[in-house]
Amino acid sequence: SSKIVSRETESAGLKPEFSHTGPVYLNVENHDELNEQIRMIDLNEEDVRLLRTLKPIVEEHIDEIVSGFYSSVLGVEKLEQIIIKHSSVERLKMTLRQHIVEIFDGNIDQNYITKRLTIAKIHKKVGLEPKWYLSAFQNLQNEFIEIIYKEAATDQERIHRVQTITKLLNLEQQLVLE
Ligand code: HEM
């Protein structure tokens, strides 16, 4: 399997931790530089676990997240044209919906990497420039933070949640823009 249980867990002599969604994966074979990137942004297993606990909240609000995203994208004439030419809003909404929910599975493995590289290729092919991808991403991030923030009980919890989400979204951008 391409899924490797993290070095942190192994070196601590611990058994990989299993939750209802499976073990935590946060180390990728043959991607030393990516593992370094992950360490550099301090994305750790605790983040992955927290991410999974946030999944139901995100799923609950997925319609507004996806609609907000596309109304902002369709507000830019150039981007609307790309969508009309290469796809459809309905199709992209479905794709994005699935993609977002999957981020909160927190499985950072070979499959995760391959998918991001494919997204990058597709965006390149349809002529989506990085500046627009990043703008769209910020819009998505704004929505996430608002939803997650509202439902947290304490300031500490809010900070932690926001940090975890921004780490994940940052990694996502690192991979798609590479
Ligand atoms: C395809 C995600 C921004 C246009 C895709 C796919 C994903 C995705 C997951 C499908 C890849 C596959 O089929 O394997 C994202 C994310 C974005 C983003 C996470 C930013 C947060 C944009 C923007 C546009 C766009 C701003 C505006 C033009 C497209 C198009 C396709 C595509 C035209 C091809 C879809 C098709 O084959 O029907 N994107 N995207 N994307 N994206 Fe994006």
SSE arrangement:
Blueprint: E1 3-5, H1 7-11, E2 18-19, E3 22-23, E4 25-28, H2 32-40, H3 45-60, H4 62-74, H5 77-86, H6 89-103, E5 107-108, H7 110-125, H8 130-150, H9 155-177
Parallel strand pairs: 4-5
Antiparallel strand pairs: 1-4, 2-3
Bound molecules: protoporphyrin IX containing FE.
Protoporphyrin IX containing FE is lined by residues 73, 79, 82-83, 86-87, 91-92, 95-96, 99, 118-119, 122-123, 126, 128, 132-133, 136-137, 140.
Please characterize this protein's 3D structure.
The protein is mainly alpha-helical. The chain is built from 9 helices and 5 strands. A 3-stranded mixed sheet has the order 1-4-5, sandwiched between helices. A two-stranded antiparallel sheet has the order 2-3. The structure holds protoporphyrin IX containing FE.
